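stage 2 :: seqdesign
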């Protein structure tokens, strides 16, 4: 019985250690996350004249509108959320099926490399966020959070992107929470422009609201 308990403890410890050591290293994933937060300009189809360009881009921005997102700054938790739902929409790239099931750390330096000038991203410690909201009851967690982060408009959570096999399309789960009853989540579809190589928003589906 003692051996069984010790074995169970070692398994749990090993899983926790493996997750803690998982850090996203693929620059393409950061390019996708950056494009979700700060959308790139979509390609202009042939036949759209110069005088129609502004109207086309305005319509494109309305078609994929993520309420709560697309501001000039974000406070992002440095640990990804599971992307199970995203995996149902797009098959993952060969060899990384299991990687997208587990929580991984986000590298601040790699993400900041995809943040446009004049925009800001702050990474929040996932452990610190869990401690802030643990056992404080309704309202207490957010009051403590705002005391520690007075300039933050809320907390943003991101999953790892799930790619198709050609890595020309990606799906990301995203959530933004500003209070206990002020939150929204989306499943966002992005495509890689064949002209510029930049990731652009293709569509989004609301997955949660509070």
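stage 2 :: out
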């Amino acid at each position: 019985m003692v051996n069984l308990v010790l074995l169970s403890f070692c398994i749990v410890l090993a899983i926790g250690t493996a997750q803690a050591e998982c850090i996203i290293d693929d620059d393409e994933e950061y390019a996708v996350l950056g494009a979700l937060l700060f959308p790139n300009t979509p390609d202009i189809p042939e036949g759209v004249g110069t005088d129609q360009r502004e109207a086309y881009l305005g319509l494109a921005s309305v078609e994929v509108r993520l309420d709560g997102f697309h501001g000039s700054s974000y406070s992002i938790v440095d640990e990804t959320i599971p992307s199970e739902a995203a995996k149902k929409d797009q098959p993952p790239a060969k060899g990384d099926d299991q990687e997208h099931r587990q929580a991984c750390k986000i590298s601040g330096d790699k993400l900041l490399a995809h943040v446009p000038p004049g925009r800001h991203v702050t990474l929040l410690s996932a452990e610190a966020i869990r401690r802030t909201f643990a056992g404080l009851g309704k309202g207490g967690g957010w009051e403590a959070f705002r005391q520690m982060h007075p300039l933050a408009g809320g907390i943003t959570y991101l999953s790892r992107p799930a790619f198709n096999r050609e890595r020309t399309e990606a799906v990301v789960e995203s959530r933004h929470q500003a209070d206990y009853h002020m939150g929204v989540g989306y499943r966002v579809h992005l495509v890689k422009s064949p002209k510029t190589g930049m990731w652009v928003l293709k569509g989004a589906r609301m997955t949660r609201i509070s």
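stage 3 :: structure notes
- The first helix runs from residue 2 to 21.
- Residues 25-209 form one domain.
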